[in-house]
Amino acid sequence: MLLISIISIIIYIVAGVMIYHNLYNYDKSSKIKLMAIGFIITFIITVIICFISASGINASANYVSIARNSSILIFAPINAVISLPYICNMFNKYKEKRINETQLKRKILIFSIILIFIVIFEMSYIKDFEIGLINNASIKQ
Predict the structure, then answer these.
(1) Most buried among 34, 66, 88, 116, using CB within 10 Å?
(2) pTM of the entire structure?
(3) Do the Cβ atoms of 19 and 86 come closer than 8 Å?
(4) CB count, 10 Å around CB of 31?
C-alpha cells in the first residue's frame, strides 16, 4: 500500500503542476483554491465510482476494502490529470476573453459528455482492477 500511496502522490504532483501551468492568468491564491477544489471534486467522484464498481464483488469485506482503497488512491489523481488541466485552461481562456460565456458553457457541456463516457468505461475497468487485486491476494494466501 505504501508504493501505491507514493505513486498517488507523484501523480497528484504532476496534476498540480499541469493545473498550475494552465491557470497562468490567476494569482497564486486563486490557483491554489482552484486546485484544491478540483482535487476534492475529482476525489469525491472517484470514491463514488469505486464504491459503485465494488458493489457487485463477492469476496471478503477486508479484501474488497483494500482493493477499493487502492483503486481510489490510483484513479483519483489519474482522473485529476485527465480532467482538471483542460477545465482550468478553459477558465483561463474565459478570463482572457478569448472565449465568451456561451462558448465556455458549450465546451464544458461537451467535455462533461465525454467524461460521462470515460466514467462508464472506468467503472468496468476499476471493477476488473479490483477483482484482479482480490484474486492475486487470495492466491498468495
Answers:
(1) 88
(2) 0.84
(3) no
(4) 19
Alpha carbon distance 44, 77 (integer Å): 11
Grid cell 477486508 is found at 62
**Calpha distance 58→119 (Å, rounded):** 22
Instruction: Report the alpha-carbon distance of residue 132 to residue 103 in Å, rounded.
Output: 42
CA distances from 107 to 86, 89, 101, 102 (A): 10, 11, 10, 9
How does DSSP classify residue 100? -
Phi and psi at residue 96, to the nearest 5°: -75, -5
Say which DSSP state 34 is in.
H
Percent helix / strand / coil, the chain, rounded to 5: 85, 0, 15
Q: What's the CA gap between 75 and 127, in Å, rounded? A: 12
Taking each helix axis from N to C terminus, what angle separates 61-95 and 2-22, rounded to the nearest 10 degrees?
A: 10
Q: How far is CA 24 from CA 15, 35, 81, 113, in A?
A: 15, 13, 17, 26
Q: Please answer whether residues 23 and 33 qualify as being in contact, where contact means their C-beta atoms are separated by less than 8 angstroms.
A: no
**Cα dihedral 95→103→106→77 (10° resolution):** -30
